[in-house]
Specification:
single chain, 41 residues, mainly beta, two-stranded antiparallel ribbon, two-stranded antiparallel sheet, 4 strands, 49% strand, flat
């Protein structure tokens, strides 16, 4: 997975997904450090 940082501290993620992937759910946990889970089905 590629990760990049933008001019406004936004994060960009890029990954080629299989054609059978229909949905991704993104969940952010406000822990220290912050954690982001991405689940694709």
């Amino acid at each position: 997975m590629e990760c990049g940082y933008g001019a406004s501290n936004e994060i960009t993620l890029h990954k080629q997904l299989n054609d059978n992937i229909r949905q991704c759910t993104i969940t952010q946990k406000n822990a220290a450090p912050s954690a982001i889970d991405i689940v694709c089905r």
